[in-house]
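Hi P.,

Sorry for the delay on this. The queue was packed all week, but I finally got your sequence through. Input first:
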Amino acid sequence: MGANEKDFVKEVTPREQDFSQWYLDLVLKTELMDYAPVKGCMAIRPYGYAIWENIQQLLDARIKATGHKNAYFPLFIPESLLQKEAEHVEGFAPEVALVTHGGNEKLAERLVVRPTSEAIICSMYSRWVQSWRDLPLLINQWCNVVRWEKTTRPFLRTSEFLWQEGHTVHSTAEEAEEEALKMLGVYKEFVESELAIPVISGLKTEREKFAGALRTYTIEALMADGRALQAGTSHNLGQHFSRVFDIQFLDKDKQLKYAWQTSWGVSTRLIGAIIMVHGDDRGLKLPPRVAPIQVVVVPIITKKQRDEVLGRAREILGEFAGRIRMELDDREEYSPGWKFNEWEMKGVPLRLEIGPRDIAQDGVTAVRRDTGEKSFIKTAELSQRLPALLDDIQANLFQQAREFRDKNTHRVSSYEEFQEVIQEKRGFVLAHWCGESRCEEEIKDDTKATIRCIPFETEQPATGPCLFCGSKQGKAVYFARAY
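Then the structure:
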């Protein structure tokens, strides 16, 4: 490794030394984003946005396959609309950005820049829903939202972020519950199969649920520093919003009834999750299915065989056009070693090296980003081997993340043990909780750990005495310190 290569890696703080700084170094160094002039806002650069586009494309197909259609709703919400639902406005009040002037004129009513769209969408749904024939109404939108956060971190928590939010209307409570659980299932399958991130799914406690929801379901992921990240949520809104915004329909029995609703969303924080779950000291490790570049071709050029090497490299690119996202790095001002480091840092799943020696043996040298393993692939086998290697890298990243998650999931039987694990080991802690919010609050105040979810019955271990008060039998829940 030459001096240039050493300097390149040095620019990233080691993960074990300072996880937070490692993360910030990586997002800047790999050009995923840059800080914008407005505090807490970021510019998503092309490489970062390409990851988001792949997420969007793969998830949008799943959303549409479940019968939902995309629409778009206004960014501005009259303040009076947001204030209609007390619990909802209280939940978002500290994060709301307000527009007070239009040009030089003071507005008659202040406008809220959407922190989420329930209020504006419900006001429209009250016009669109009249009869049982209009239901179910299944709409999703891809947009930006603004939440004036005090503490921000690129992708994980920013004042403005991108997301999708689904908003649905149903004629019965059962249908709404089925929808909320179905979309949570879509999120779980998507995050696990496309992002290679294992998640735990379950119900949020009353204290942790979405403001205004009847029930909130969640998928929770474990980052490499042992902190949890809420990766997606699905809310059964019950009839709260339909009563406030007067969403009524004439049912088949000729009775006027209030509708049942859901909302659900995931955001650009999924990019943060990919970085924090898979990345290492050499940089990003991107799952092939969402990587902007799946394979990078690095020619090893000599003066004598320059044209021959570049010609062969371009042939390979042409062969896989439309099948694999592949890029040729033919920059001659950088050494091959420097390029290897750059593409490793950018997390490209697979690198192909082509030099005179490879051409003489009629093949290429393939290097995996996940394991660093090198292999020689004959030209005739490339068509089969490259897709298979990418699939194997995807599966291996998921397997590694699941092993890490399982190794860092601890069962405890006493509060002393709980405190020790949260402080020293971190990770998920499975413990019993009586269901009282007082115990939940005391644990949070004492340890900064929150209940991430009450796992579904299928994953639910036996009941036992409450971790904190010990007086009542409780369900097993997952605790963790979280982002």
